[in-house]
């Protein structure tokens, strides 16, 4: 299949927001992605301001291969840079998504590879990300490609403080 990977621009925010909603539905957590709380305007501000919080790659197909719903943007990878006091520079991939009708054609692998290339070009020593427990096919793919499952190998738990809990934590 003919597709390309490119850096996202501000005009891609509506497509990224659309695919982000699809990703939440795919992961059976649509309530986690509330459109009125996080939308394409947030993506514009947070990804394309003077000091962006993230970067994004878009997978797209030519017009003649557009999706059944008419989209040419068929996948995305959203990532940002972080740092480990033990390992140094790292890149964190927050999301990797490919529309269902385009899966199994190398699009996800190409997005993952491009994120890895970006990390290496920036001097990163590792690529980190989380995978939904139920997404065993992706876990298996990452393990086959040399990834480590830190949950089972090291025993780390991924933790978060959200909204009210974050506010409370800041006050203590």
Strand-residue proportion: 15-25%
Order of helices and strands: EHHEEEHEHHH
Q: Helicity range of the residues?
A: 25-40%
Enumerate the strands of the largest sheet in spatial order, edge to edge or round the barrel. 1-2-3-4-5
What count of helical segments does DSSP give?
Answer: 6
Low-pLDDT segments, ≥5 res: none
- Kindly state the number of beta strands: 5
Give me the Rg, rounded: 17 Å
Shape: globular
User: What is the SS-derived class?
Assistant: alpha+beta
Distance from first to last alpha carbon: 54 Å
- Tell me the major beta sheet: 5 strands, mixed
Taking all residues together, what is the mean pLDDT? 92
Note down, in words, how this protein is organized:
This protein is of the alpha+beta class. The protein contains six helices and five strands, in the order βααβββαβααα. The protein is 34% helix and 21% strand. Strands 1-2-3-4-5 form a five-stranded mixed sheet, sandwiched between helices. Helix 1 packs across helix 2.
